[in-house]
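Take a careful look at the sequence and tokenised backbone pasted below. I need to know what the token row says about the fold.
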Amino acid sequence: MRAVIPFDARSPNQRLSAVLDSDERRAFAIAMLRDILDTMEPTRFDPQVIATATLPDSVSVPHTIDDRSLDAVITAEIEANAPLAVVMADLPLLTPDTLARLRNTTSDVVLAPGRGGGTNAMMVRDAAFETDYHGASIRDHREIARERGLSVGELDSFRLGTDVDEPADLLDVLLHSNGRSAEWLEAAGFRLTESAGRPTVTRAGDSD
């Protein structure tokens, strides 16, 4: 089954700018994307990356270039190719078992909410569905499905719900994964430490 992975190849992870410069953000974004592709290898999903610009040779799966808005790209994919999955590119904690749960949840539309009200992944079995990724998209996607008479399921998953958008999210990568993303952070000097008895992330050379 087709699994669409939209990817911002030009200016990814801008909310990590407090801890990573632009080149580092692009490199880290590629590491997260490759983690997702690695995770899909043993599954029944056929990944298709849709990027806003050309990807480096290290991304070895087929990809297309499309600089339209996220909603335009994904809605067109649904119309042409449903049933399919849509998986965001900043989910480095994913496992094959998590993806199997997404695939095996039986509804017309299966939504995986993110922690901040977004939609981190979905399984769409009916081409009548369309997306609206702005704002609290999980709420909007529920409503769109219901307006079209589609059944809606939700997958409550820590690993699907953990998208890496903010500096604080790096903690989860180092705590709960051992893939390319965690390796990249460690090579860049990020380490797990404790502050007031709680785990946190610091970077070698930081004055703090």
